[in-house]
């Protein structure tokens, strides 16, 4: 069993009944946030890249809850220096944690940290938890090796940015679904700010017409159970 809750923008909460894992918990300053950084529970926090709308409240949540941050080596060093708990990975590598496995994948984007320091390469993540495989693409443009991710890891859910401007827009995200072949696709990284305004219903109808996946355009705070 896996419960997946969209917390707005790229932030997700995954729960298997025993552990709570957050992905990219940008809550403070996020106009779409469906949770508060000083209240949310977490055991693990996965961070795709160093930008403020992804690293977000990770350090503060780790320090309050003891949650372990899982990210690339450069971001982990930044978090450790601020007193957070953290485990370093890098692209292609994965590690088994008490809830399951996290593996970093490539993403086409940037990754500077809030203080301007180098955040390593940006990543997508594969999370195995509750018997499911979740692919969260982070911030990325379309790339052909999404087919490799689909063929090799068979994601049950693909969580994909559709906001355009900084990441894939709707057209490329529909193509990404064709490459990844997930059972379910959830659009993220749209409507948070005017420059990434998109119509999720249009994405949903394109996914329904052009792919074999089911699109769940969640409202912030909405949960699906798999
Ligand atoms: Ni970014
Ligand atoms: Mn972003």
What features would you describe in this structure?
It contains 6 helices and 14 strands. It is an alpha/beta fold and 226 residues long. The chain has a 7-stranded mixed beta sheet. The protein has a 7-stranded mixed beta sheet with strand order 7-8-9-10-11-12-13. The longest helix is centred in the C-terminal third of the chain and has 11 residues, at 170-180. It starts with a strand and ends with a strand. The model has no long low-confidence stretch (mean pLDDT 98). The structure holds nickel (II) ion and manganese (II) ion. Manganese (II) ion binds next to α1.
Q: How would you summarize the topology of this molecule?
A:
Elements: E1 3-8, E2 11-15, E3 20-23, E4 44-46, H1 52-55, H2 58-65, E5 68-72, H3 73-81, E6 85-89, E7 94-97, E8 100-106, E9 123-129, E10 132-136, H4 146-153, E11 157-161, H5 170-180, E12 184-188, H6 200-210, E13 214-215, E14 223-225
Parallel strand pairs: 3-4, 4-5, 5-6, 10-11, 11-12, 12-13
Antiparallel strand pairs: 1-2, 1-14, 2-3, 7-8, 8-9, 9-10
The structure holds nickel (II) ion and manganese (II) ion.
Assembly context of the chains: single chain
Helix content: 10-25%
Q: Structural class, please?
A: alpha/beta
Instruction: Quickly count the helices.
Output: 6
Report the count of strand segments.
14
Average pLDDT works out at 98
Specify Rg, calculated over alpha carbons.
16 Å
Bound molecules: nickel (II) ion, manganese (II) ion
Low-confidence stretches: none
Distance between the termini: 6 Å
β-sheet strand percentage: 25-35%
* Major beta-sheet overview: 7 strands, mixed
What is the spatial order of strands in the main beta sheet?
A: 6-5-4-3-2-1-14
Q: Which series of helices and strands comes N to C?
A: EEEEHHEHEEEEEHEHEHEE
Shape type: globular
């Amino acid at each position: 069993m896996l419960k997946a809750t969209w917390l707005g923008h790229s932030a997700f909460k995954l729960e298997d009944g025993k552990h709570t894992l957050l992905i990219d918990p940008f809550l403070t300053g996020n106009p779409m946030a469906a949770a508060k950084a000083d209240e949310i529970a977490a055991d693990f926090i996965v961070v795709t890249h160093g930008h403020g709308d992804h690293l977000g409240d990770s350090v503060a949540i780790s320090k309050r809850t003891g949650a372990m941050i899982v990210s690339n080596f450069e971001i982990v060093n930044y978090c450790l220096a601020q007193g957070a708990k953290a485990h370093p990975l890098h692209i292609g590598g994965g590690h088994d944690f008490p809830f399951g496995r996290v593996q970093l994948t490539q993403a086409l984007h940037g990754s500077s940290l809030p203080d301007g320091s180098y955040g390593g390469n940006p990543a997508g993540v594969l999370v195995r938890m509750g018997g499911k495989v979740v692919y969260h693409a982070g911030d990325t443009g379309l790339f052909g090796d999404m087919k490799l991710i689909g063929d090799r890891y068979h994601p049950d859910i693909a969580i994909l940015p559709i906001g355009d401007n900084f990441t894939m827009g709707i057209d490329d995200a529909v193509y990404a679904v064709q490459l990844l072949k997930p059972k379910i696709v959830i659009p993220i990284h749209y409507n948070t700010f005017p420059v990434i305004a998109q119509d999720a219903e249009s994405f949903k109808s394109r996914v329904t017409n052009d792919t074999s996946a089911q699109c769940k355009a969640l409202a912030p705070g909405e949960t699906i159970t798999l």
